[in-house]
Request: fold
Amino acid sequence: MARDSLFHARRAGNRPRTSEQTSSRTAARAAGVEANVDWTGLRQRMRGALLRPGDPGFEDARKLFNPLNDDHVPTAVAQCESVADVREGVLAAANHVPLAARSGGHSYVGYSAPHGGLTLDLRRMSAVEVQPDGTAIVGAGANLRDVYSGLGRANRCMPGGSCFTVGIAGVALGGGIGVLQRKFGLTCDHLLAAELVTADGRTLTVSAARTPDLFWALRGGGGGNFGVVTQFTFSTDPAPALTVFLIVFPAGKVTEVLSAWQPWIASAPRELWANLNVSGGDVPGCRVAGCFVGPSSACTPLLDDLVARSGVLPSRRTVQDRDYFNAMRFFSGRPDRESFVASSRVLNSPAADPAAVNTLLTGRTGMALILDPLGGAVADVGAQQTAFPHRSAFATAQIYASATAASEAEVTRSVAEVVAGLAHLGIGGGYVNYIDPDLPDWPTAYYGPNLERLRSIAHDYDPDQVFGFPQALTQQA
Reply:
């Protein structure tokens, strides 16, 4: 969703705009011209609640998933209940104070909580309705639990992320990698239409027929760059029987398992998705978790093959048949809030030196390197058919590290070292949904050959940077 344009420089690579980069209108916002916002009038015009500091519920409403972002304190939180509420919030705040929308609140560096600005909280707009033709109309405030539950009741499915509290809007707008992607493609590949409020307060129905450029951009161009999406229409598929599994290997066997996992998943049928999670420490360890579209009787031989290729006897192995909703729940085990620092890279091909990857994680307790395979249906779409550019890549890599306020600076440096180390191994690029202000050359890393077209579309729909933030398409790296 839309993100904070004044996220203060808590991370070394996230600095305020220079005067050359800032228009007169955004300069006014940077100066905090709050007096020009009629908060009382906005409260009266909204059907939902407008919360300000000191109001009951404000503290809970303003906080995001990552407690390290608790120092982002918006001037107001608009708990929108309708597209009209969103429109009123945009018109009231535009070019006066920072403006951002949030649903799940999982923006890694807190862009959905604009310090000193207005948060458009969409969580009350979370309905999921499956139509007789199988399409699903989903409110932009829905989280993945809402989506998977609603689809499961209708015996339908759609690919998406693994954490239940993540918002569908952020997932879909950034591309949407997940456990069913090799079989069914990305979340954005299922987008048929979207309802969007523009910077000048218009409400558009975005589709391939009506607004082809904007529709293209919404499928992987990242949240917050073009307007506030209030509703999605997705295509869905009949829900299949699924198998979920977890294989834990003993510590000290990362090189062997990674060496086996890469060719194994590259040659696997598209019904199989399995990621590799390397946990840092004095002696790094790893596990493979995944989902198979089909019964466990067909999945088990594939897992036996991985174990045989690695030559490592697992310390734990779990294989379960599940329905769609409960298969998605298998991957959802996360707390309500979690303090972390994270970044990403993209592997265009398998890592040539698994031992070097193991070395990068050695001594980094509390850090994980999570490799999520692409391929299959993801690669059926061309790199420039949608805004998501990493269609031919082998896998995405997420670098994820636990942190506290006291350790944040040290952990941030450690994450940056791993990011640089992966680049030294020839692993570049980045996934916009794992957004990181410190990622070198982030515009090209996130968008590749689609960058200039995306920037042009962002300028067309938001020329005055109403939805500006430090990593907006209107910004330079």
Notes: The radius of gyration is 22 Å. The chain has 15 helices and 18 strands.
